[in-house]
Model the fold of this input.
Amino acid sequence: MNAPHTLQEPAGPRPYNFSAGPAAMPEAVLQRAAAEMLDWHGSGMSVMEMSHRGKEFGEIYAQAEADLRALLAVPANFRILFMQGGGLGENAIVPLNLSRGGTVDFVVTGSWSVKSHKEAQRYCNARVAASNADDQHTRLPDPAGWQLSGDASYVHLCSNETINGIEFHELPDLAALGSKAPLVIDFSSHVASRGVDWSRVGLAFGGAQKNLGPAGLTIVVVRDDLLGHALEICPSAFNYKTVADNQSMYNTPPTWGIYMAGLTFQWLREQTEGALSGVAAMEQRNIAKAKLLYDFIDASSFYLNKIDPGCRSRMNIPFFLRDEARNEAFLSGARAAGLLQLKGHKSVGGMRASLYNAMPLEGVQALVSYMREFERSHA
Ligand code: PMP
Done:
């Protein structure tokens, strides 16, 4: 029989966790949740035990929404929805709500937008307006060459491709490209790592489990004129207008996820870098973290990153050992050095380091030191 689990004080600093998601959370958030686990603010209840319609959870919800709105500078004519179903759920929920059964343009840039396009075909005429498949998803297709249709209900893109490690550093201005359609972005894996230009976006969605909180919570930010056009077959619980009209409480929302994400929003709001705070501070840190790792990889003849430097992701950095026979040794040495979950996605292979907001610069420095030492002893 297994020994019963006991709770012990941590033996020392926690390892650095490079998981692509569910991913590392800020330690301060985990500590706070642990301290509040049995009794939230003298209520006598854990957040998991509260009615979502009660006063206590109402406070948690309102604070989380206000903090997210402030962090991402979400304009007043956008609604914030806290849903369930994850990114893949939204691949169906978005066309059910926005396509009107008509034409939708997809910009396909990697594994996640491939999946979004495929799922939407069940509900609408889902076209590929641009694709980088011929470049093995290593560079973004130039917006000037996108084949946008005149009558699209919306244009979909994934603004950070988690598996491929490719990111839009600027969102396209669809109006300037001759399209009147709203832009839908899947920002699952870089939400809150940088600002969002809402003047170019109609709807953004993302699972929380990378940069915001635990799995089970999905964030949707939607311009209010896009509500109310759902297909008849759209499930009520996934109808954005129904969700918005009921402050995300048409059915029970993922209360624990909202609470944890709310603590993360507070943590984010407290972060500063010089005169910058919140997401702007995180963006500076994320630029520095990613530069450290990319510069090291580029200077090495032992490691390789295949993505065009102009569109490399700051959040997800896939890299390869030129001698792949050393992969297992690299990973087991990394684990022993306190560097966790560096194995690449199975469809790409190699390694992947995800550097979300909760990863401090020191974690990337530790990774680079390990990589340098591994190269020295194995080259
Ligand atoms: N989109 C992106 C960009 C992702 O990174 C992921 C998860 N890795 C998904 C969608 C799918 O999200 P979920 O597993 O929450 O459905």
Q: What stands out?
A: The pocket of 4'-deoxy-4'-aminopyridoxal-5'-phosphate is lined by residues 21, 86-88, 112, 158, 162, 186, 188-189, 207 (CB under 6 Å).
